[in-house]
Amino acid sequence: MTYDMKEKIFILFIFLFLFSACKKQVDKDRPEFIGYWHAKIADNYCARINISENSSAYYTIIWQDHETTYSGTARANDNKLTIGRTKYFDIVEYPHHIDTAVEKEYVYTHDNKPIKLANWKMVLKGLQPDWLHVCGTWTYYKADY
To answer: Which domain holds residue 103?
Structure first.
């Protein structure tokens, strides 16, 4: 190997290390993301994010009578929530507690029936890349009780 080639490989490894170190699994450093999140988009359209205690995540969108699910490990930093290696959301509003006396939003079941009053809120833009052309900025709610 030439000196140039070794230098390029070294730079590539540094870049890969920095890229992978930017986002931490949510179970380690960002537990506020853990839970069942629901965004009501329209009458029968919704998006759900379910992140377990071990950072395993499922994103489901129900749009135009079609259900699509993506899964993978959830990782987050201050700007992005990633599911798997290639799907991500831009974080518009980081997960935070809400005042349930002021904001009365509910978390829904799989058949769109309200089950609990939400006490957490986050706003995400995405899912990127947008294969379904329905990436909007939606408000997700969760109840942690």
So the answer is: 23-142
Contact criterion met (CB below 8 Å) for 117 and 97: no
Question: 108-126 pLDDT, tens per residue?
Answer: 876 667 789 999 999 999 8
Instruction: Give the CATH number, domain containing residue 59.
Output: 2.40.128
- Does residue 76 lie within any of the structural domains? yes
Say what the pLDDT of residue 2 is: 62
Residue 59 to residues 11, 26, 104, Cα–Cα distance (Å):
34, 15, 24
Domain annotation covers residue 111:
yes
The answer to whether 46 and 65 have CB atoms below 8 angstroms apart is: no
Residue 78 lies in a domain: yes
Please give the Cα distance from 113 to 77 (Å, whole number): 32
Q: Which two tokens stand for residue 143?
A: 């109840």
Is the pLDDT at 83 greater than 90? The verdict is yes
Per-residue pLDDT reduced to its tens digit, 20-29: 445 678 878 8
Give me 18's structure tokens. Answer: 């920095």
Sequence-distant (≥ 6) Cβ neighbours of residue 33 within 8 angstroms: 26, 51, 74, 76, 81, 95, 122
- Residue 94 · residue 122 · CB < 8 Å: yes
